[in-house]
Amino acid sequence: MSSDAALYRSRIMTADQAVALIPSGAKIAMGLGVSQPPAILRALADRAAAGAVSDLRLYYLLSTAIAGETVLRYDLRERIRPVSLFHSAIERALDARAAADGLPPVEVIPTAFSQAPRVLCEQVGVDTLLITVSPMDEDGNFSFGTNTDYALAVSRTAARVILEVNPHMPRVRGDCTVHVSRVSALVEHTAPLLEVPRASLRPQDIAIGDIIAGLVEDGACLQMGIGALPDAVCAALRGHRHLGIHTELMTPGLAELMRCGVVDNSRKQIDVGQTVFTFAMGDRALYDFIDGNPRMSAYPVDHVNDPAVIARNARMVSVNATLQIDLDGACNSECMSGRQYSAAGGQLDFVRGAYASKGGRSIIACHSTAANGTVSRIVPALDGPVTTPRNDTHIVVTEHGWADLKGKTADERARALIDLAHPAFREMLERAAHAKGLARR
Fold first, then answer.
1. Do domains 3-188 and 203-435 have the same CATH topology?
2. 285 in Cβ contact with 254 (< 8 Å)
3. Tell me, what's the pLDDT at 227?
4. Is 41 helix (H, G, I), strand (E, B) or coil?
5. What is the pLDDT of residues 155-177, one digit of tens each?
6. Per-residue pLDDT reduced to its tens digit, 364-392
7. Looking at the domain 3-188, which fold is it?
8. SS3 labels along the chain
9. Alpha-carbon gap, residue 231 to 218, rounded angstroms
10. Which sequence ranges form a coiled-coil region, renumbered to this chain (predicted)?
11. pLDDT in tens, 52-66
12. What is the architecture, at CATH level 2, of domain 203-435?
């Protein structure tokens, strides 16, 4: 038996035994999205519910139902204290319930996604990692598969690395593995990976997708988010050629562009021939596609989302969504009605990286309205924090058109943005602009 195999056998234990290694007061990093380990999180929730452990702080981005049904249960909040770096529907529901009970919301650490590894390892001092990985290879390495992001950095510094080994987790190339010698406990558990259903496309999505596709040149390099709007953009790009991908999130829409030959990564300046990502989320077909794919590489988020790295590929096009844009062009992509809705994520990382690339374009896209047409997304002033400052906003797209804000005066910006608003709100925005001394002709 090899030394790696012997180490593997010595680290195998049940989920209950594995979470017993976590002391009260621990600072835990939980895997993002698909990599949240169901067996381990269930055992930890049960241990906390039994009063065997307390005063845990749980750090993470983008929780799913796996966490929501276990460690993020409302009744455990006194023993397992969630600290979110990016909200999902789970935290929004927890916050609504807490508000009804007169309690504080889930704590939030404002940060760019690119800074998450350093924040967790240095500022927070996380001491435990809980995550799902692929089975060990012949060199003693486990692949983080769908989620390299901040997990790689934490695996190298945490005192306890507890892995859930799932044969359904894909094995991916790149800098995305942890060696068995770093592992404290291994829990073998076979379970289907979480899948995210496709959102249905609305007419606004299709219109925005067509506009953005018209702004993308053949040979450009793409970054896309998740949801109906990015799916619409990918669908509209089917007639393009020689596109590349350098993205924080790998999606089914991007995978389809690879399958049909639109993406070949041949015109990239770095990672030529390779699609680069830091986490993946979608359906089983996506996970099968990235499994062992020699044309794909996963790297940690402090590399993938580094604006200096992003800018090294020419004609970089980033597409990000926002919740609000004010008349100066500043974007709030994090809060709604005074409450945390999501977080900054990698938006500003790619806004700056794309614009810094030769011939690059940073695109902020959104429907012109929200709440069934009753609320304008283009507003006189933001209701929440500035995610993308006005100095950084480049191209804005709604279903009513697009505008390049770079080089425009404050008056010209306001006028351009009012033209992108829904017609029902343009008169209100005109009045607000004039009151601020803007949009003068």
1. yes
2. no
3. 81
4. helix
5. 999 999 999 999 999 999 999 99
6. 999 999 999 999 999 999 999 999 999 99
7. Glutaconate Coenzyme A-transferase (3.40.1080)
8. CCHHHHHHHHHECCHHHHHCCCCCCCEEEECCHHHCCHHHHHHHHHHHHCCCCCCEEEEECCCCHHHHCCCCCHHHCCCEEEEECCCCHHHHHHHHHHHHCCCCCCEECCCCHHHHHHHHHHHHCCCEEEEEECCCCCCCEEECCCECCCHHHHHHHCCEEEEEECCCCCCCEECCEEEHHHCCEEEECCCCCCCCCCCCCCHHHHHHHHHHHHHCCCCCEEECCCCHHHHHHHHHCCCCCCEEEECCEECHHHHHHHHCCCECCCCCCCCCCCEEECEECCCHHHHHHHCCCCCEEECCHHHHCCHHHHCCCCCEEEEEECCEEECCCCEECCEECCEECCCCCCHHHHHHHHHHCCCCEEEEECCCEECCCCEECEECCCCCCCCECCCCCCEEEECCEEEECCCCCHHHHHHHHHHHCCHHHHHHHHHHHHHCCCCCC
9. 18
10. none
11. 999 999 999 999 999
12. 3-Layer(aba) Sandwich (3.40)
Please identify which residue in the block is written with the tokens 């990000």: 320
Contacts of 362 (CB under 8 A, 6+ apart): 317, 318, 320, 350, 351, 352, 354, 355, 392, 393, 394, 395
- Alpha-carbon separation of residue 249 from 26, 253, 272, 426 (angstroms): 29, 11, 18, 35
Q: What are the tokens at 160?
A: 């306890």
Q: What are the residue numbers of the active site?
A: 248
What are the extents of the domains in the chain? 3-188, 203-435
The amino acid at residue 83 is V
